[in-house]
């Protein structure tokens, strides 16, 4: 299996130096990617806090914030939660400021890519996802549905991937076999991300321990927890955890050899992909052993975003 070290016919007009406006587009796209990574970090902080990860006393408080959306807490409980609410309000405000700045930056990027057809198409996709997330925003704070949280999660990851594609377009074609391999790895990684999002938003992360234990628990629970339109706590979550672990193994088996293959034509991109995947593989067990510490869970989320962006650049 080989890859061809040639200019890719799929990316006309995006080669550095072809047009000064395209050089500006790449710089602005890198800035956009940095802003989106910060936004996804803030969004993940809000999502994980709403799920109850990092609450005190752990794990007795797990899921309490989601239940509060369904049944508002008593006056005494609201007073106890005031410091945490103040912190979350600050995070939410920062999230909104960065989101507005990112939208403005994306509009500026539109002028820089007006002469490149592929870049223009990806810019439109980036703008569409941004507007979708803006419309979804008002629902996020007051909805306990996993589907809403997943919409935010996947939308933010899509924005990061599109920003990286605009900032660092691939310049080499790949063989059909490698392209199929890329798609298989991307589908596996996307499944892992969706299942991880479901695990946190459905209150499933403490439902079982280890692959064998999750399989035994899942066999007796059914698969209703995979429905993102069910409210948290309405279905046991071991199937989500079991599938998430299986998807993690599939991602490593598919994407690590792929990164090794791609190193010959793009050492930097392949290195980022491999480093993110290896860090995810190490961080997963550490995160479980540490009782799902908030900082480790947040880092797990961001590493998945970086891995998906690195992989999506080649699709």
Structure notes:
With 315 residues, the protein is mainly α. The chain has one domain (20-73, 84-312). 71% of the residues lie in helices and 0% in strands. The protein contains 11 helices and no strands. It has helices at 20-51, 64-70, 75-80, 82-112, 117-140, 146-167, 176-201, 210-219, 238-262, 267-289, 294-312. It is globular and about 60 Å long. The chain starts with 19 loop residues before the first helix and ends with a helix. Mean pLDDT is 84; it is low at 1-17 and 78-82.
Give the low-confidence spans: 1-17, 78-82
Distance between the termini: 18 Å
Estimate the strand proportion.
Answer: under 5%
Total domain count: 1
User: Secondary-structure element sequence?
Assistant: HHHHHHHHHHH
Annotation, overall tally of beta strands: 0
Percent helix = over 70%
Major sheet summary line: none
- The number of helical elements comes to 11
Defining key terms:
315 residues, mainly alpha, disordered N terminus, heme biosynthesis, membrane
SSE topology:
Blueprint: H1 20-51, H2 64-70, H3 75-80, H4 82-112, H5 117-140, H6 146-167, H7 176-201, H8 210-219, H9 238-262, H10 267-289, H11 294-312
Main location: membrane
Subcellular location: Membrane
Pathway: Porphyrin-containing compound metabolism
Can you summarize this structure?
InterPro entries: COX15/CtaA_fam, COX15/CtaA_HemeA_synthase. With 315 residues, the chain is mostly helical.
């Amino acid at each position: 299996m080989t890859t061809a070290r040639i200019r890719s016919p799929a990316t006309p007009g995006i080669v550095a130096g072809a047009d000064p406006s395209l050089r500006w587009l790449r710089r602005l796209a890198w800035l956009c990617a940095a802003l989106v990574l910060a936004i996804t970090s803030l969004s993940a902080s809000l999502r994980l806090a709403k799920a109850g990860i990092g609450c005190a006393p752990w794990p007795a408080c797990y899921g309490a914030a989601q239940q509060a959306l369904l049944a508002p807490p008593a006056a005494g409980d609201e007073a106890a939660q005031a410091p945490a609410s103040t912190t979350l309000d600050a995070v939410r405000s920062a999230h909104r400021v960065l989101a507005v700045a990112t939208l403005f930056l994306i509009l500026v990027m539109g002028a820089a890519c007006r002469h490149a057809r592929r870049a223009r198409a990806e810019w439109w996709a980036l703008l569409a996802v941004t507007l979708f997330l803006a419309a979804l925003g008002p629902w996020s704070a007051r909805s306990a549905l996993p589907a809403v949280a997943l919409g935010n999660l996947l939308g933010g990851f899509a924005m990061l991937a599109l920003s990286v594609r605009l900032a660092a377009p691939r310049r080499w074609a790949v063989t059909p076999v490698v392209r199929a391999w890329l798609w298989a790895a991307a589908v596996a990684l996307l499944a892992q991300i969706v299942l991880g999002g479901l695990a946190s938003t459905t209150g499933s992360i403490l439902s079982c321990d280890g692959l064998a234990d999750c399989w035994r628990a899942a066999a007796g629970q059914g698969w209703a927890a995979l429905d993102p339109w069910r409210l948290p706590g309405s279905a046991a979550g071991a199937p989500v955890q079991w599938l998430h672990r299986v998807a993690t193994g599939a991602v490593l088996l598919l994407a690590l050899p792929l990164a090794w293959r791609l190193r010959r034509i793009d050492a930097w991109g392949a290195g980022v992909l491999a480093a993110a995947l290896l860090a995810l593989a190490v961080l997963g067990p550490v995160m479980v052993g540490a009782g799902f510490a908030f900082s480790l869970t947040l880092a797990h989320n961001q590493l998945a975003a970086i891995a998906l962006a690195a992989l999506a650049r080649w699709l």
